[in-house]
Design a protein that fits this description.
Largest sheet of chain B: none
Radius of gyration of chain B: 21 Å
Strand content of chain B: under 5%
Number of helices of chain B: 6
Strand content of chain A: under 5%
Number of strands of chain B: 0
Chains: A mainly alpha (105), B mainly alpha (169), C mainly alpha (354)
Helix content of chain B: over 70%
Largest interface: A-B, 72 and 80 residues
Radius of gyration of chain A: 17 Å
Shape of chain A: elongated
Number of strands of chain A: 0
Largest sheet of chain A: none
Order of helices and strands of chain A: HHH
Number of helices of chain A: 3
Distance between the termini of chain A: 43 Å
Oligomer: heterotrimer
Shape of chain B: globular
């Protein structure tokens, strides 16, 4: 099974993996569209934590640059996602994701 | 000292993440997300990357979550009487999938030779990062700006109420 | 790091925080007297000479008032909202440099709580957290006026953070550092022999944008739409009473102090006395501690000037309408900020070749 973490880097990996798992779990089970978007942000942040840790410990700045790009894209994703949610709410009067299945054949 | 702080803020981050998933009202999800992001930025500081930590607070906590809260207030969402998650089987299957994937991710993270020794912390100077950003990674940077432009136009089109139907309620 | 260092750090932090909190009672008096002066009436004059004890009376009144909790509020968020505003406001204090250093017990004591290498970013990012108190306070009150105030606040803060950050980016480009202390060091001496070497001469447009955006960030008139008492009763703090209400006000004045301190640091030479270098002053005074005292006094005078400007503007200029506010932010300040960045970059490239 899972070994007990001994070093700081391992702790960091566990925290990142745990956060990613939480985000993925929430993404799969929650029905509130806004919370689903929040869970995507959580997953992206878990990745950021891992990248920062690797970058700082191996002294390669590429990881940090990647994190900057990810943050930009995440901000963009949140803006577009919330715009879509707003429109869907106008259409259906709710943000429950099961309501949005008009394209289902 | 550093180890203790690291674990404490890690636990805070995970509790925040848990709050996002289990909160019954979207505004408490947003509140938990603030806590999680605050803990994450503390973790970045402990890894020595102050710049990313400040960026995290400035952009995520200061802008993105505010946007989420704004939309939650705009839509007047009600509290869910019980956590609305779909059928129990779906939840269990999701849980099993997530468990499997997180173990896989953990294994992937723990590989690699750099992991063998706990190296000394190297502080990444902002000059190094910005220099790389404008030389080696200039093209991705420029493409990102184009992407943002497209995004601004897209969001404007998306969020604007249809003018033909008159002003929206 | 031995016990003496730790003691010095603790004492220094306590002294600087207590000094910044003293701003609150002083500003209550200054604001009420300033309003009275501008509106041509006597103002508070019953408690103490010139009404100087009025803040004490106000504080006592707030303390002894009943603390009502409306029935429909969300108890948790309602209770912590005032502190969500106060906490970021007081955290920002620790990045502001109020002087160079003093010497106590043979040690150099930095006159700043924490000398951060990302000082300016720290101030901007932690300062932007103050909006959560308004947001959650307004939402938790279950009052439509409060909710409207909170929604206005979120839109306003997101909009005005961009010009603020652009102006700050200009300052960073010009000084070549994020460290506030280094920025102050760069503003020593004279320019052309007759001007103090302050950032405002190099960044006039940046200062203007920064100044306007700070009004919006601190929710002061003409940008106080989140509370605008004429339209929304009291905005986000309509449902608050007693000490919780007082905490909102404390946060506002501490925000004011840090905003003024930030302007002083970025554009008005921080702790430097104009026209004279610190080395020359040290020669004249002959003592490090005397110099430090003079620096702190200089900083305080500059800070007080901006605080008075804040009060002056509040009672002189009428409030914006919300669409006007958005237009100023997105259509005027944002293009100006971008233009300023381009001009600064070109000039820096031509003059200094970096």
């Amino acid at each position: 099974m899972i070994p007990i973490p001994s070093t700081l880097a391992q702790w960091s990996h566990y925290i990142a993996a745990c956060l990613f798992a939480l985000g993925l779990f929430g993404f799969l089970i929650r029905k509130n569209g806004i919370v689903v978007l929040m869970c995507i942000e959580l997953m992206l942040n878990a990745l950021n934590l891992f990248l920062v840790e690797v970058s700082m410990r191996s002294s390669h700045p590429e990881g940090i640059i990647f994190v900057i790009f990810i943050i930009t894209v995440a901000a963009a994703e949140a803006a577009v996602g919330l715009g879509i949610i707003l429109n869907l709410y106008r259409l259906k009067g709710s943000v429950h994701v099961d309501l949005f299945k008009s394209l289902k054949g | 000292m550093r180890d203790g702080l690291f674990i404490a803020f890690g636990i805070l981050t995970i509790l925040g993440g848990l709050g996002v998933v289990v909160a019954r009202h979207a505004i408490f999800s947003a509140f938990s997300m603030v806590i999680a992001f605050f803990g994450l930025s503390a973790l970045y500081v402990l890894w020595g990357s102050n710049f990313i930590a400040m960026l995290q607070i400035l952009i995520y906590t200061g802008a993105i979550v505010v946007l989420f809260v704004f939309v939650v207030m705009l839509l007047d969402l009600k509290k869910e009487s019980s956590l609305d998650t779909g059928s129990g089987l779906a939840v269990m299957l999701s849980g099993a999938t997530v468990w499997f994937f997180s173990l896989l991710i953990l294994r992937a993270m723990n590989r690699g030779s750099y992991f063998a020794s706990e190296k000394v912390l190297v502080s990444q100077d902002m000059r190094v990062i910005s220099h790389l950003l404008f030389t080696k990674y200039l093209w991705p940077f420029e493409i990102l700006s184009l992407f943002l432009l497209a995004l601004i136009i897209g969001v404007c089109v998306l969020a604007r109420p249809d003018s033909k139907e008159g002003p929206h309620k | 790091m031995d016990w003496l260092d730790l003691t010095i750090i603790f004492v220094r932090t306590a002294v600087i925080y207590v000094a910044f909190i003293q701003v609150v009672p002083i500003m209550i008096w200054v604001e009420r007297k300033g309003a009275a002066l501008i509106q041509d009436r006597p103002g508070p004059n019953r408690v103490g000479p010139f009404g100087l004890l009025q803040p004490v009376a106000d504080a006592l009144k707030f303390l002894f008032k009943e603390d009502p909790i409306p029935k429909e509020v969300n108890k948790f968020l309602y209770a912590i909202a005032p502190f969500l505003i106060l906490l970021p406001a007081s955290l920002v204090v620790c990045a502001i440099p109020i002087g160079d250093y003093a010497v106590f017990f043979g040690r150099d004591v930095l006159l700043q709580v924490a000398d951060l290498d990302v000082g300016l970013l720290f101030v901007l990012s932690i300062g932007s957290l103050g909006v959560y108190g308004i947001l959650f306070g307004g939402w938790a009150s279950s009052n439509k006026f409060s909710l409207l105030g909170a929604m206005r606040s979120s839109a306003q803060v997101i909009s005005y953070e961009i010009p603020l950050a652009l102006a700050a980016a200009n300052a960073v480009m010009f000084y070549g550092t994020f460290n506030l202390r280094q920025m102050v060091f760069a503003q020593e001496g004279t320019l052309f022999g007759f001007l103090p070497n302050w950032g405002i001469w190099y960044q006039p447009l940046g200062f203007l944008i920064f100044f306007i955006a700070l009004f919006a960030e601190t929710n002061r008139l003409p940008f106080d739409l989140p509370e605008s008492e004429a339209e929304l009763v009291g905005g986000y703090h309509t449902e608050y009473g007693s000490m919780k209400f007082a905490v909102f006000f404390m946060a506002e004045y501490i925000n004011l102090a840090t905003a003024s301190g930030l302007m002083t640091t970025l554009y008005f030479g921080g702790w430097h006395l104009p026209w004279i270098t610190d080395a020359r002053l040290l020669e004249l005074l002959g003592s490090r501690n005397l110099l430090a005292l003079l620096q702190v006094a200089t900083f305080t005078v500059k800070l007080s000037f901006f605080m008075i400007v804040f009060v002056w503007v509040r009672w002189t200029i009428p409030r914006f309408r919300f669409d006007q506010l958005m237009r100023v932010g997105w259509k005027n300040l944002l293009p100006l900020g971008l233009l300023n960045i381009i001009v600064t970059a070109i000039v820096l490239y031509l003059v200094e070749g970096r």
